[in-house]
Amino acid sequence: MPATRHHTRSLWRLLLPLLLLLLYLSGGCSRLREQLEFWVERTFTEASPREAFLRSRPFDSATLARWDSAYQRVFRDTLRIELPHREVFRATGDPGLSAHALHLRLPPGRRLTVRTEGGIPFGELFRMPPAEEPHWLAGWDTLSGYLSYETAGPAAEDLLLVVQSLPKATEPFTLTLESEPALLFPVAGRDADNIGSFWGDRRDGGRRRHEGNDIFAPRGTPVVAAAKGRVARVQDGGLGGKTIWLRDRDRRLNYYYAHLDTQLVRRGQRVSRGDTIARVGNTGNARTTPPHLHFGIYGNGAYDPFPYLGPSDASPADPRRLPGTVTEVPRRGTHYLRLTPSRNGTVIRQLDGGESITEVATTGAFHRVVTVAGETGYVNFD
Description:
Elements: H1 16-25, H2 30-44, H3 49-55, H4 61-74, E1 85-89, E2 99-106, E3 110-118, E4 122-127, E5 135-140, E6 146-150, E7 157-164, E8 173-181, E9 195-197, E10 202-203, E11 208-209, E12 213-216, E13 222-224, E14 229-236, E15 242-248, E16 253-263, E17 270-271, E18 276-280, E19 292-299, E20 301-303, H5 306-309, E21 335-338, E22 347-351, E23 357-363, E24 366-371, E25 376-379
């Protein structure tokens, strides 16, 4: 199985300590250990929509074998895209060409959304830890065609999206990937253009660095909860003047609001995303500056807030043409098979003029193709 998933069934939780003990004691008996690990995998892991479909055996064995083999094979693909991204996939009706992989990096503080239109395929999202097996994160069936995922910490995450059409599907589908800020902008009616001082800016003659973003707005502008949470502290004094600390248990983060003119919440109060909790001011050491909100994010240390607040991705452009019209490499010009749909993308190899190819998708000016040798890559024929 190309990925690990952890959906524990409560019915079997009482058996887990005993199973762990048996696994430990069976360390010298590899056959028993293999059988126990197989049983744990089947018992404690819920089938994904794709796996459930495969187990239902809706097609003959040969068709399903080719279909499953195509899925296993794409985990060896290394094609990479950048956000935002839109790609139109051709459904050829060939189970061996039904699965496709897209590697991407999701920056910290961003929420990934994936949408499909047309003949909706199965979709599965994996985290790709270095030197480890892919870790299953989320998926969809052939009815929904949508998922949303947010980075779990202050670092970017390498992800793999695998999509697979039904074994004999012939309806094309469009895949759109975009990212948006994980948090609501904390000053009502303002956006990232109103940030006037950023993470890392020098303070006190260079003796310290700015641990936040300063968002400028008229005095009295509503300050809102960037996420649902509980008010941990409401204070008045020190460099921040009137401050509020908001605890986000879902993300295990704390949000720091400083230089407030008015505090409108109390300690222990629960708030929803978008609730007004204060008003912009310039208290504390900001009394000589225009009114603004100092917004900070703290978890295991201080985080740069900007990725959590920056603008959503612009909608990606449609491909210049639909897939399915190219069957061989043009004999004129030089054409390279690349790992990314970019003229600067890493070259896999130069394609030969007249070489037979199967076009499976298009994005921008690039074609995703499969060669006779089984190589997959992007190529531009313009």
